[in-house]
Design brief:
Serine Threonine Protein Phosphatase 5, Tetratricopeptide repeat
Length: 255
Amino acid sequence: MITRALPCFRDWCRLQPPLFCWVLLSFLGGFGLLGESQQQRLSRVYEQSRSEYLKSPDSATLAWPFARACFDRAEGITSRPVRRALAKEGAEACRVALKESPADGACHYYRGLNLGILAQTQPMRALGLVREMESHWQACQLLDPGFDHAGPDRSLGMLYAECPPAPLSIGSRSKARLHLARAVQLAPDHPENRILWVEFLIQRGEKATAAEEFKVLQKILTDARIRLVGDEWEATWKTWETRTEILQTRLGVNP
């Protein structure tokens, strides 16, 4: 399973500390293309979920797995038109399903993620999309806060951390801290939440606290290696390992 996180708006990266920009780029293709076998797997999942979804386009239970497949496939592709097309498919599937099932947290969540890719591929529209992303993740946070290992709070935390502050956009370091910390609280054993929390602490200059949190992260990674296995986790683990090595270097922590 590819880790979900909001896309990096490239035009904004110059305004942000390099650590978070690297993190966001790593999520959405800037870190490098997935291997061919992984691309083939994602394409197969996309085709299968699309086939199921087309049988009942109004069904939320079929829409969000298709939207997830759109998002996952788009993450490993560098072609902007292809990524945009996939994100449009995923976002539209959730939009239609939410008309019939407005309380479906998963559809809110994956519509927000696909809108994030649209924001990345269409920088001129990015500022206009972030509020809709925010509203969908807020809805999911209320409906199903534990979804995708506390994905709503994780996504909101990164959104607030990366967006420019008012009046340009909705960025807020205090809100970012609140949601990233809540993601750790809701899903403490999920590596992505812990890694993001340590990265945020470093970005805020709280190195001593980050070093203590990194020790917890190291223990969690050992246990997660047993739980999170299979082809769907292969690309995610490569990203986690690289980011963890960078954190280790920045903090001066022994392996």
